[in-house]
Design goal:
Elements lengths: L26 H14 L27 H4 L2 E2 L2 H6 L6 H8 L9 E3 L4 H14 L1 E5 L20 E5 L7 E5 L4 E5 L4 H9 L3 E2 L12 H6 L17 E8 L2 E4 L12 H5 L8 E8 L1 E2 L3 E9 L2 H12 L7 E5 L1 H7 L7 E9 L5 H13 L3 E10 L8 H19 L4 E7 L7 H20 L4 E10 L2 E11 L6 H21 L15 H7 L2 H14 L34
Parallel strand pairs: 2-4, 3-4
Antiparallel strand pairs: 1-2, 5-6, 6-10, 7-11, 8-9, 8-10, 12-14, 12-15, 13-14, 16-18, 17-18
Helix pairs in contact: 4-14, 9-11, 13-14, 14-15
Amino acid sequence: MSGMKSKSYRKQLLFWGWGYADDKLSDEENLLIEGIVNTLIPEGTIELTPPQIDEFELPISRLKSLPNVLNEIISTTVYDRLVHCYGKSYPDMARMYLRQVPNAPDGVAFPRNEQDITAIYDYAARNNVAVIPFGGGTSVCGGVEADVGQHYQATLTVDMENFNQILEVDQTGLRARIQAGIRGPDMEATLKEHGLTLRHYPQSFPFVTLGGMLATRAGGHFATVYTHIEDMVEATRIVTPSGVIETRDLPGSGAGPSADRLICGSEGSLGIITEATMRLQHRPKWRATASITFDSFLQGAEAVRLISQSGLFPANCRLLDEQEVAVNRVADKPCALLVLGFESASHEVNHWMDLASEIALDNGGELQGEITYNAGHTDKKGSEAESWRNAFIRMPYWRNRVSAFGIVADTFETAITWDRFPDFYRTVKQDMEKAIAEISGYPFSFSCRFTHVYPDGPAPYFTFYMVGDTQGNLQHAIDKWKVIKQLSLQLLADHGATATHHHAVGRDHRFGYEQQSSALFRQTLAASKQFLDPAGILNPGVLIDPVDKEVGITGIFNGLENPQGE
């Protein structure tokens, strides 16, 4: 058994938080963070020291009698087990600060080919070992933690970093066959050599893998039309314990239910995705961006509804409410702000921008600055839209330090129809702000923005900062987070909104998923899992439980009274 050296080749990740081990916050970012802390806790608080690897003493690995082929690809180093023990949610990071790792995997496998994956399955089934596909490890819903209950003898996380190649590029048909372990930046860098792009940029883009995005139905760059990764899928290949499912690469098909649609969103519960044929685009050349202010968020929402139903389909149509604008300092007055953008690889987009901005202005909007038009393959810097986007990408890095002060920084997101949105927004804002004020007892921030919009409704994304603890005890902060998280799931369920628009289900969102999905469908999914994964080894507790191995809603909600909000 290998316990001496990592099997990973990639640049070292920060094991306890977001980013690479050598990533640093800028002086400006540190000042911004300290400003947030001073605003929320004016009397001061304790800043915890980030954890070090030598402060963790993990249990001895329970993996026994590994065959030679697995000895070659499995690591049991403390570093690899720590990197793969959690995703990147607030409680994941807080527990790292507390040096609490109750469910560290017993080992991490780095398969080199599909035969290695099959060998992992065979060993796991014989020895009752749970197998946890890891993706890029950016889950914020308990999707990669090896919290599988008491039914398994050991746990093994699978990291697909060796599946990192673009195998074929079809420039005529604008598509490519790509291995599932490739990371977003590496994929885009290779496609750029062909003048192509997948053009799918989630906030976690620097670390995501293609397979992870497919397994979680990730949302990306486009605010309309191409919002989810499955919209760009032409074919998939997944290795299950019962064999390989491979779909045919076709531009479209009406031949029965889509296997690709079952694979996308399966969250590692049915098998491990090894490759996919993806639909690509030429890299955009023409762009137009504008920032438009509104007196209120709901006024802006009405303008966005009309834009979403106009057939113009902007690439960016993100509406920030008044608090979101204030926190990110992207306007010089109290207002809601619409970040509007168009892009194209084939034609100028001035006319489309003019039409969309006219809709916004006719509905009470006010143009902030000038509309920016530019051509070329590099984004023009300096606009309000670009400033907000850069801040958005950096937010996970900020949370590394914000959490050390005892501040809970977290989000939840959803989608709902336009007719129900106004009442939904008012109620969620009122109930969440009341609960946070009562639970925290300190100043707080609660804000909302649209990440994506559709003709039939928006995808609201809520962000909150609240004081969890000022004495260095993050367990108090986690307990407060649990209550807020439970309330948010209940509010989404009560209003008929989805439990998640693009963050996936994992373990933390199962209550909401079960509220919105048919019990009969979940039984059908469980039957499919039993056929494909008869030993019930793949990511138990995510989406559904294996037959005869009840896991239930575990994860961070363990120990919380009435975790299903009933």
